[in-house]
Write a structure and sequence with these properties.
Helix content is 25%, strand content 26%. With 179 residues, it is of the alpha+beta class. It has one domain. The longest helix has 18 residues, at 17-34.
Length: 179
């Protein structure tokens, strides 16, 4: 099956960790509305070394699960805080490069495959840092997805009001045709 991806670039806007989590939560809620009701949203939990599934309402997609939502290296990454000597990640921290998350949408939590994986990067306080939303789809999802689903996913990205551009690509689109 041909792999399909949505790749987008966004205007970067400075955010705290909490603002980034809320930004992501709003995007995930909008995407969840497009998908079947039984879809589970999960992220990788480094501490337990397994997927962490969020509540269906996403009520636990908040600052209490900072470590499960944000991708960062606890030993190396430094953050800007009110106390300039504090370099640890806090809910009000800012990041020079922005915050990053990788979220999985799964119709069957017991199955290893996720139908959709979404990467979101946003929130840098330094100018000209990358901000993006990239979405990848499983073969299973591609077999059942309609054109309207892809259009609605693009609309969700557009509703962030940060969209610079978005494209839907596939390996087939990128292959050079041989005569």
């Amino acid at each position: 099956m041909d792999k399909v991806k949505i790749i987008s670039r966004l205007k970067s806007q400075e955010m705290t960790a909490k603002e980034f989590i809320n930004y992501c939560r709003n995007i995930l809620i909008s995407i969840k509305e497009i998908l079947p009701k039984e879809t589970t949203i999960a992220s990788w939990d480094d501490e337990s070394n397994k997927l962490y599934s969020f509540q269906n309402s996403l009520s636990d997609f908040n600052e209490h699960n900072l470590d499960k939502i944000l991708i960062f290296n606890k030993k190396e990454d430094v953050f800007k805080n009110f106390d300039s000597n504090d370099k640890e990640l806090r809910i009000d921290s800012r990041s020079w490069i922005g915050f990053s998350t990788l979220i999985y949408f799964k119709s069957n939590p017991k199955n290893e495959e996720s139908e959709i994986s979404i990467s979101i990067v946003q929130g840098a306080f330094e100018k000209n840092q990358t901000a993006l939303i990239n979405i990848e789809f499983s073969d299973t999802f591609l077999n059942m997805a309609t054109k309207e689903v892809f259009i609605n996913l693009l609309k969700v990205i557009e509703q962030t009001n940060d969209l610079l551009y978005a494209v839907v690509i596939s390996n087939e689109f990128r292959r050079k045709k041989e005569s």
